[in-house]
Known about the structure:
By secondary structure, chain A is α/β, with parallel strands linked by helices. Helix content of chain A is 42%, strand content 9%. In chain A, helix 6 (165-174) runs parallel beside helix 7 (188-194).
Amino acid sequence: MNGRICKAARALAGMTQADLAKAANLAKQTVADFERGARTPYPNNLAAIRRALESAGVVFIIGAGETPGVRWRGPGGGEVKPARASRQPGGGGTAATAASFEIHHSRFLDPSGRPVQPLPEFARDPAALIPLYRAMVLTRRFDAKAVALQRTGRLGTFASSLGQEAVGVGLASAMRPEDVLFPTYREAGAQLCRGVTLEELFIYWGGDERGGDFSGPRQDFPVCIPVAGQAPHAVGVAYAMKLRREPRAAVCVIGDGATSKGDFYEALNFAGAWRVPVVFVINNNQWAISLPRTAQTAAQTLAQKAIAAGIDGAQVDGDDVIAVRHAVDEALHKARAGGGPSVIEALTYRLSDHATADDASRYRDAETVSAHWRTDPIARLRAFLGNAGAWSKDDEEHLIGEIDARIDAAVQAYEATPAQPPQAMFDCLYAELPKALAEQRATASRESGGKGGEDA
Amino acid sequence: MPEATLVGAVNMALARALEEDDRVIVLGEDIAVNGGVFRATDGLLERFGDERVLDTPLGEVAIAGISVGMAAQGLRPVAEIQFMGFIYSTIDQIVNHASRLRTRTRGRLTCPMVLRAPFGGGLHAPEHHSDSTEAMFAHIPGIRVVVPSSPSWAYGLLLAAIRDPDPVIFLEPARIYRTIKQEVADEGAALPLDVCFKPREGSDITLVTWGAMIKETLAAAEALGAEGVSAEVIDVATLKPLDMETILASVEKTGRCVIIHEAAYTAGFGAEIAARLAEKGLLSLLAPVERVTGYDTVMPLPRLEHRYMPSEARILAAARRALAFA
Ligand SMILES: Cc1ncc(C[n+]2csc(CCOP(=O)(O)OP(=O)(O)O)c2C)c(N)n1
Ligand SMILES: [Mg+2]
């Protein structure tokens, strides 16, 4: 940025030199000298000027091969309101409000599937929602199959997403192929939408690393089991996208419990400070194993954690796939346009046990759980589509038949996949196996009689 | 005497400690209402209430760091990390704070805390649930590292860890949580934290191990016995501080030693024992020290994990090599 670009940007934002100096926490003279071409500010001050202008709605055009310039994005899009100084009502005139914020909650369909406000553009034609419906049903039937296989010893521990399908499907359907997803262990729905195959999911949950070598989304991260560990990765990936001026974004899904971790707070803070194209979707299913959301934090919402990092935060009805899709659409649009990160808290409910190794009856009663079936995201969209004449009983039967056949075929393929030979432990450890490990690899291979391929 | 599994004995020791000392606080993720994902803390909330048995929010750094603060105030926190795979973020708190609070204040502030975690493979668990990285902790000055391998030792060692005036990392071998049942006297008797145990006496070869590998090691000793070889088995139990005298005395008698651990080979705790044998027991050795360990690979997912874990066959092969050496 040079002084003239700064002046142009300031004009776009309708700021005076004094306004800009204040927003960037600098002396007015620094800005004035810069714009006159008299003196270039220190790099950190330059960065502060740029951040202040970006926060005011300016986008700097600095792409390779582009003429440097500025564009106006506008402050809209649910921006955090700038801190407003105001007198405390009725106060003694000394305390002033240094900052204030609101968290908005949005929904389009109520639990019975009736629209509560005009639907967003992508949802105007009910037929356009059918792919989302199919993806949610696929997720649920895959999930039921995975749990059944685990129960009969044919799959490893599995984390069900029963009741949470709208979150994964909503967010992944808003993504473009070139975006990058950071899933938790409970996001099979999002992964399937991204092009991870059923067979790969079974292979992974069956205890085989090859299930993480996705044939579809090559840049997506594998599921993250250490809670919140993926949040900083998403910021790093988003930084790379920003550095290369690519209109792409990272989408990081994490649980309500994960928002208590330092990894999450640190990632949010960096994302805000660096204004990178990342969208955090908090899949708030109200539970972190046995700990209810109310015991997890005293914060009123999880979305407001964004505010402390200078990021937009909003809540959506996570059982309304239209609301999730719409919120993530907007956040991605903003991110790709250089508008920085967002946090979306999707409110849903974990209808299943935490995982197949868990017994939720130890810490929550069945009535509470069954009451939450009323907000089932799949029934909600089905009701809407049915009312709109876009979905029939026949369609439903057809869909189930088709999906179950796909799942059965994937299970067969998975079960026909022999285990890797033991030396496979060494084969993706380094780009090239160090000589020092050759003997160990030979031992591992010999221990199995050189055969491998059989399970315990 | 009641019979208990290893995890049951942990539970008994925790209850005993809470009962006898009202400074004891038990905290961790899912440990109160749910009783712990392995049920190690089952029933403690009901007996001792929610001021002393705490379900924490999700956050290992805080669990460890808050324990340091509690301990400095004279409480006796016993914190659970749900699996060893999630303990790594606490290492900052352990290395930079827990282990040196006493040193930094010349004893004015101390840190009598226990950090418990299940560890080890063989449970067909998901990624990150099967590591054995005890050697990382054994490297840290100022703490104790304890690994029980039977119900009665778990009971006595955990009580000792809780009563100890310094920080203790207490690693519980999850694979044998429920495989052995023993009579455990719930009489509050602690075991010493600086001695190795000798679950089997012998005179021809010394097999040194700890944690879940005790199972394969004892089986190998049994098999050797059937061949007329008398194998002595040492369960290290407290890795730090290490009771080298017991190991040296055994090797002086047998002249041959195989060290067995599930953790990776390089810089595994077996290396420490082998180095000390070289320093202090070289002239007793009749054969090179053998190590049977996991490989220097990432712990594989369940379909290959049994290929990673040292087997009885590998222990036997190493023992035979040592015995054949002349
Ligand atoms: C760092 C870390 N600590 C503990 C665990 C054990 N654990 C697995 S899932 C979970 C709860 C996570 O809750 P939440 O973030 O709400 O996600 P959900 O499982 O509800 O989808 C815990 C404590 C873990 N995997 N990682
Ligand atoms: Mg949750």
